[in-house]
Amino acid sequence: MSTRIALIGIIVEREASVEQLNRLLHEYGEYVVGRMGIPYRKRGVNIISVAVDAPQDMISAMSGKIGSLDGISVKTVYSNIADNPM
Question: pTM to 2 decimals?
Answer without folding.
Answer: 0.89
